[in-house]
Amino acid sequence: MYALNYVKAKSVKEAAEFLAAHPEAKLLAGGMTLLPTLKLRLARPTHLVDIAHLPDLRKIEVKGGKLVIGAGVKHHDVAHSPVVRKAIPALAGLAGEIGDPQVRNQGTIGGSVANNDPAADYPAAVLGLDATVVTTKREIAAEKYFQGLFTTALGEDEIIVRVEFPLPKRAAYSKFHHPASGYAMAGVFIAQTAGGVRVAVTGAGPGVFRWKEAEAALAKGLKPDALEGAMLDASGLNNDMHADREYRANLVRVMAKRALAKLSGKK
Ligand SMILES: Cc1cc2nc3c(=O)[nH]c(=O)nc-3n(C[C@H](O)[C@H](O)[C@H](O)COP(=O)(O)OP(=O)(O)OC[C@H]3O[C@@H](n4cnc5c(N)ncnc54)[C@H](O)[C@@H]3O)c2cc1C
């Protein structure tokens, strides 16, 4: 490691002010992504501003028809929260499938959503549930928030404070784990929301995306065989040493069918 400064923020406001005054500083939440990035010299911040302990970022509640999860809530706590399990069981299940116990006990929802790894799980739920990312500056709809590979609408000194998930009628997530890392080779989140059925895909492409053809098929009814004819165009999908794009397209179809089976109570 090289020399850098560590700052333990006393409040979200103080962290935001510090970031504004120090453009080369970086927020530290669970450190599960940031610390390996520093070790590999892929980032060289002047300061790490620790926000993981702030109570304002650790709340989980249902308010105004939404499940509200603070940015500093760890994956383990989302997975085991009775509030999340009751409001959106699929989200608790998703959090419980992230990485391994060490990652789940350190990593936070805010860190994951800020990082926007193309194989991360939360982006599928945030987009699938049409959630809102609330920051120190504004509210950003999921559709506008995710902007492709490790890219989001967040500004340099903007802090995610919480994520607000509208309560769906039903939702389910199915993921094919990468056997080494646990990340999604393909993960599909299906939600029956007030605005219709949404299908969000992670892991298969350069960023989370909605599979519109599957949504159109499911809009006719959430029947177990509704996705039999749905095809996913493989041309924009990832093609790498882990899987080629045609394999990934097929994985997405399989994961979507599994998520649908969970929704219909068949699995
Ligand atoms: C071995 C391993 C396996 C993993 N497997 C999976 C998996 O299966 N699925 C999955 O989804 N993820 C997986 N992850 C990633 C994990 O979920 C991380 O927790 C997550 O990517 C980052 O969260 P963090 O709290 O550790 O953030 P950090 O590493 O502390 O920060 C990540 C980035 O987000 C920024 N940031 C943090 N908090 C905020 C905030 N509130 N507002 C704005 N910016 C912020 C930081 O400055 C940094 O740039 C894995 C990680 C590891 C190491």
Description of the molecule:
The chain is an alpha+beta fold and 267 residues long. It has eleven helices and twelve strands. The chain has a five-stranded antiparallel β-sheet with strand order 4-5-8-6-7. Strands 9-10-11-12 form a four-stranded antiparallel β-sheet, with helices on both faces. The longest helix is centred in the last third of the chain and has 19 residues, at 245-263. It is globular. The relative contact order is 0.12. The mean pLDDT is 95. The site of flavin-adenine dinucleotide has 31 residues, from β2, α6 and α7.
Give the low-confidence spans.
none
The order of strands across the largest sheet is: 4-5-8-6-7
Number of helices: 11
Tell me the β content.
15-25%
- Share of residues in helices: 25-40%
**Total strand segments:** 12
